[in-house]
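User: Structure tokens for both sequences below?

Assistant:
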Amino acid sequence: MSSKRKQTWMRPHWAALLPLVFLFSGVSLAADSSVSQIASRVDRRYNRLTTLKAQFQENYNGAGFVRNESGELWLQKPGKMRWQYEQPTPKLFVVDGKNAFFYVPSERQARRMSAKKLDDFRSPIRYLLGHTKLQQEFTKLALSSEPPKDAVNVVLEGLPKGMEDRVQRVLLEITPSDQIARIRIEELDGSSTEFIFRDLQENVAVKPDIFRFSPPAGVEVVESENAEP
């Protein structure tokens, strides 16, 4: 990993994996539930959603570097999201459906790139808002031997299609309510990124301007080919 990837925005996120969550109490998932049955129930859960709001925790570990961040996430179908990082450093990542913007207030500069070119682990819109099916996006999707964070949950693992040159496996922790409570992306270089979601609110009213990026006075917006400021 280059020195640049150890900066504020390093590479810890991605496009395809952010199913939302929080932990629910309840009975354990049936031991005899097949992967196909579990995946189908998760698909049905998210296909009905139009918006999501949640608190998120993002943990990155790689190349001797550890970063733990948290904040608030908003998602809206189709293809809009806002990651408002609050701790430990304020940052903003917004996708308005056409462009993605990365802004770190202390840098006084924002980067913009086409959402179509975005290759970033913070972009799991398809999973969260019903743009695809888990079994179509992952190869070798199976029950994982990895223990869940909550004993009532179950963990699936698989390899996201098209990411074979970068990702070793992805873990999806699923609650008895068929929500994805945790996503862990393990890359071939040994680094990992984990997302945990809490305080989920489904189909809430969202103001359109929450997905618009308006640069503050004095902040320059520059075009970028890299999803990492």
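Moving on to the next sequence.
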Amino acid sequence: MKAIKFRLIVMNFLIFAVWGAYLCSLGIYLGRIGMGANIGKFFAIQGIVSLFMPALMGIVADRWIPAQKLLGICHFIAAIFMALAGYMGMKYGADVTFGQLFPYYAISVAFFMPTIALGNSVSYNALNQAGLDTVKAFPPIRVFGTIGFILSMWIVNFTGYKNGYEQLFVSAAWGIILAIYAFTLPNCPVNKNVESKSFVDTFGLRAFALFKDARMAVFFIFSFLLGMCLQVTNGFATPFLDAFGQSPEYANAFAVKNNVFLSSISQVSETLCILLIPFFLRKFGIKKVMLIAFGAWALRFFFLGAGGPTGFGLVLFILSMIVYGVAFDFFNISGSLFVDQNTDEKIRSSAQGVFMMMTNGLGATIGSFCAQAVVNHFTLGKADFNELMTGWSNAWYVFAAFALVVGILFAILFKYKHEPEKK
């Protein structure tokens, strides 16, 4: 049993190490090669492919290719195309164009995003085969995914790869290792004789009937609105910190030279805040917990806008990283639990798919494009350093105001009475 847990720990570590190599540092590289105005597109593609690729790969894993082998195949393809993106960056340097870089990156992301769900399937299957309780055994295993993400961030930070195309090669290297390792994992069964289902059932679309329930409709709509916040700091926090380096006063500040390391505090906080969710849900219920998440997002953005790389400003930056754990976990995990507890068993998995589609799919995609428009409006063409940083601060304040206003509307429109005895 310990052996299978360790093997799953390694798998989860590698999956998220692939992602951590570039997710929070890609914006720095894009900004340095003159693609700062396209950061939103690079992050929006993750949401776009999340609308259909996980479902498609899930069908393939159920019917034709065992999940562990498909996991390896997807990571191999993703690694090859991420390496090709890195090669384009290496070959053309600062002259690399959007058309030379983005297509390879987009294909890589398209094959990476389904692997999070595939990894979960491999874990659940292996734990069940070992006779273990997945509810108790999986969370401690999944934590090592976040540890892999953090370690990968530290590698690109302290090697300086965060500034260039090298981070793409680091991601590709992790992916190749995982692609090979995945083929050694316990076999997952496939059902080639599975009963034919309608298009609606195959893609879980029947769960959209939940929108007929006014309370669930409001919940999903606000999940979409809050989902718009998800990729904002992933895409723009480190380029913002990097911009301080244009001033001799801040160029050698620890927060500027190690901006990706500073951002990793967010993931550490995320890991720790998971432990707070059961208590807060039992004590306050989903509405108050979600309101806390809205407030945490507003604080996250406000602290970034008001902060700076030294002195009290650095304290505000660190606070923005710490509060991220509450903002992310109290929304994503608590929201998922609410969906699980308030949907019929027959469509529970599909309902989770709708929740993910509204947040990480539509919300994150539209949020990335909108965030790019806001950042462009306040920062493009600002040659003066003080004007540029004032523009960045104003952009963060706009994001903070958005989260605050949406939170107030949620408090008014979402009707929910907490019943502690059901928690």
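User: Anything stand out in the second?

Assistant: The chain has a mean pLDDT of 91.
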